[in-house]
Amino acid sequence: MHIKEEAIERHTLAVIVDNEPGILARIAGLFTARGYNIESLTVSEITEDKAVSRITIVTSASPHVLEQIVAQLDRLVPVHKVHDLTTEGDHVERELALVKVRGTGEQRIEALRLAEVYRARVVDATISSFVFEVTGGTEKIDKFVELMREVGLIEVARTGIVAISRGKDAA
Predict the structure, then answer these.
(1) Structure pTM?
(2) Under a CB-based contact definition with an 8 Å cutoff, are residues 56 and 160 in contact?
(3) Which of 8, 119, 142, 156 is in the most buried spot, having the most CB atoms within 10 Å?
(4) Cα 51 to Cα 144: distance, rounded to the nearest angstrom
(5) What is the model's pLDDT at position 3?
């Protein structure tokens, strides 16, 4: 008997939920209990009355496991809807990072030059360091951080991925 192995794919999920205490813990617990990994997690209120939130989750799973994840999320009471943005069509993903870099002399000049190439903005500067703000896709931020390691990387803080589908329809 030959068992076909399913490919693991990265998926971005938009989960629309009631904004109530404990919902994030319940969703994270669902992933943890079943051994699923959350690669990125962001949460924000999306209605004027702050009653509804959008949780964006990035995870990697086989199609079968992803189907289970979506079904289990859909069963949670405060969950309104789960959208797999990856399979539903074109979507836009962005992440923001703050990158602190040590820099004097030539290293300082190189850090500023690289920041210009990556459209990173200086949000804080001292005589011996910079904090850059960079936004874009995960790959762009990964590359910027990698280059800053060579110049004098001190610290990185990242927001996680936010995503939204393209077109006229809302999640």
Answers:
(1) 0.83
(2) yes
(3) 156
(4) 37
(5) 55
